[in-house]
Specification:
By secondary structure, the chain is of the alpha/beta class. The chain is built from seven helices and six strands, in the order βββαβαααβαβαα. Helix content is 45%, strand content 17%. The N terminus is likely disordered.
Length: 195
């Protein structure tokens, strides 16, 4: 195992990950990386750092954003004018889908998206030196589903961001783009109906 420091202003703790060196027997392996983080965590920065690091190993990356890639293909979301309503809408749609079908349904959408990307790149069963970064997984059933499908090729990274930073991130996304009163993370959680 190796230690990698995620280079973002909000996440400077060391995280133990299973790097590509552990896969020497299969140097051209395909990997799936699931990211988990609370509302307000800047997973874009984390995905960018991971993508940049994988380029050093000549890996191509695809970032799969569950809300945009999967929920938008299932529901006719339409144009959402402001960030607050966008976040709220996608959270509601994901929760409704999970409650109507099963808790791991969006992970099935991730697997289908990976399948479609494979077909688009030449109908290969597995793409060599390719990483799929998934933003973001929401529950244990989604993680379990992806582990069952991808086995040792699946990595889960949980990103911790303190409450003040998440509040700052949400305020920047919501307040700075619209005329909305700044609030604390607890304020946004109450409005978004999340813990």
């Amino acid at each position: 195992m190796a230690l990698a420091q995620l280079e973002s202003s909000e996440c400077t703790k060391y995280t133990t990950i299973q790097p590509l060196e552990d896969q020497r027997k299969s140097t051209d392996s395909e990997i799936v990386i699931g990211l988990v983080g609370a509302v307000g965590t800047d997973l874009d920065k984390v995905a960018t750092v991971i993508s940049d690091r994988l380029k050093k190993y000549v890996y191509k990356t695809h970032i799969i954003i569950v809300s945009k890639t999967i929920l938008c293909n299932i529901f006719n979301v339409g144009e959402i004018a402001d960030e607050f309503n966008r976040i709220n809408k996608y959270m509601d749609l994901g929760n409704k889908l999970r409650s109507k079908i099963h808790q791991g349904i969006l992970a099935e959408g991730v697997a289908n998206t990976i399948h479609d990307l494979r077909l688009a790149e030449g109908k290969q069963p597995i793409l060599k030196r390719t990483a799929f970064i998934v933003k973001s997984l929401k529950n244990e059933a989604e993680v379990r589903f992806l582990r069952e499908i991808y086995g040792n090729g699946f990595y889960l990274i949980s990103v911790y961001t303190d409450e003040d930073t998440r509040s700052t991130n949400l305020n920047a996304k919501i307040f700075d783009k619209q005329n909305v009163k700044k609030g604390s993370v607890r304020h946004w959680f109450m409005l978004l109906g999340s813990d």
